[in-house]
């Protein structure tokens, strides 16, 4: 019984080791993907929205912060992935070619960052990913 068990283990080990070909993937060399095309390839441009330089409050409470355009005929629409104003995330949506934000949320961000509610002109840094 012991001999049969030992022989069967030897056969199993030899089959297991014979199936290895020694061709292993290098784990220190991970898979890489090519870099995606930048927005400039598609002719996408960003410009200040029509209401971004406004001193009057809007009736609807929505500000068209950024206008997105493309000269490439293959680009049919845009999807907003991320929007930051002065480095702080803010909710926004795309309506046509305009990125819109809530005026109240924008005011809260600017007032908290500047520690002032004074009505003065301020430059804001808008970062958007579409």
Polypeptide structure, described:
The protein is α+β, with helices and mostly antiparallel strands. Helices cover 22% and strands 25% of the residues. It contains two helices and seven strands. It has a four-stranded antiparallel β-sheet. Strands 4-3-7 form a three-stranded antiparallel β-sheet. The longest helix has 17 residues, at 2-18. 9% of the residues are buried. The mean pLDDT is 76.
Walk me through the topology.
Elements: H1 2-18, E1 44-48, E2 62-70, E3 82-85, E4 88-89, E5 92-95, E6 98-102, H2 103-114, E7 126-129
Antiparallel strand pairs: 1-2, 2-6, 3-4, 3-7, 5-6
Short synopsis of the structure:
Keywords: Signal. The protein is an alpha+beta fold and 130 residues long.
General form? elongated
Spatial sequence of strands, sheet with the most strands: 1-2-6-5
Give the helix tally.
2
User: What does the average pLDDT come to?
Assistant: 76
| Main pleated sheet | 4 strands, antiparallel
| N-to-C series of helices and strands | HEEEEEEHE
Q: Tell me the β content.
A: 25-35%
Q: Distance between termini?
A: 71 Å
Radius of gyration: 30 Å
Number-wise, the strands total 7
Structural class: alpha+beta
Q: Which residue ranges are poorly predicted, with pLDDT under 50 across at least 5 consecutive positions?
A: none
Which bin fits the share of residues in helices? 10-25%
**Oligomerization state:** single chain
